[in-house]
Amino acid sequence: MRRYIITAFSILFSVSLIAQNHKVKEDSIKIRQFYNAALVKGQAYKWLDHLSNSIGGRLSGSLNAQRAVEFTKAELEDLGLDKVWLQPVMVPKWTRGAREHAYIQTGPGMTTEVNITALGGSVATSPGGLKARVLEVNGIEDLENYKADIKGKIVFYNRPMKPELIQTFEAYGGCVDQRYSGAEAAAKYGAVGVIVRSLSHKIDEYPHTGSMSYGDLPNDKRIPAAAISTKDAEYLSGILKLKKDLEFYYKLSSENHGEVQSYNVIGEITGSEFPEEFIVVGGHLDSWDLGDGSHDDGAGVVQSMEVLRLFKETGYKPKRSIRVVLFMNEENGLRGGNKYAEIAHSKNENHIFALESDAGGFTPRGFSFEADDAQFAQIESWKPLFKPYLIHYFERGGSGADIGPLKKGDIVLAGLRPDSQRYFDHHHAATDTFEHVNKRELELGAATMTSLIYLVDKYGMRHIDLETDKKL
Q: Would you please indicate which residues are annotated as catalytic (active-site) residues?
């Protein structure tokens, strides 16, 4: 009897193993199809060419942002999706105005021009510009050490990104507060303006803009804020050691115009078996105005569109409803991400997974996930399927700003993680342009995203029932 039981068990185990191997082979073949279609007949690079070179920088609330809305909506409609629509969202409108001008003055008639750019949301200087002595500090927390010396001066934040950190986003996160909140903090000590070292490892002449906030400061207390290129930050820091009483001049013409209406662009393939379960893939349609926003985040936009196109191209019919969401206003407000989540939650839509691409169009390395233990174990079991494509990074961590507001219940959030070593050379700078995106790297990223969405759609996501503590 025992021999029969063992034999039966062996047969069942063998059948299970055969079935499992069949699924792995089936998934491997399908993923190969996605990569083949993306690399041979991909559309992402063509779409990005139009976004970057025919439309250009897509500052929230601008005419170019609206042109991008109209273009991507038309392209999604051409894919033959089940639904394509615009989701209205109110966004802040800020304009840069005339080109910024700045110089360092070390004596009468002794000036050196430097490269600056207004930070997004900054107020303007007076029409004649602003000139004052400079106080260099190493980040916001360093202000306290100089509180008696700040009044009437321009605060120069010169904390660099840490070069020893391999994860460049970690280095960026370690000093972005001086850009975002530096003006608010310095104004409370009586500063008349702020200059912030650009957030980049590269030493060059291109200043990097980015969003900033005055918090709850009244309008009459707000001071002009600009970023200075890393090369000029090094020069200013060096000359300050020799000439502490030098003066810095800069002129900004930026202006805030209140709110205007814009849109998220959404396309959907309705699920064949579980249409009420939603999977989102997306990037943000707006960009800064210095370059054309190819890496940040034109790449994420076209890669996300390509996911749905590759499903159509390869004949894959998803079980669950797959949505591409092109979010508006990530750069200076996150209004699009918040609006999408607000409406999704108000409708009690069951979102099980969301993937964002907002780290540039460089070679994909893998993904980071916000997931519980059971969900992450399931995701890790798919890792061998990505090994042939040199995708090895499957880690728990942050996902993306625009999908963050969706976090509720069992939803898993994920972010595409490309090689980031060159990303901050271009981030928010005039060098974020189409020629710095490699076609093949962009296409590999799109195929990698498609493969993950396919696996989530096919198998769903496990979760832990809080009452029974069992994996479902």
A: 330
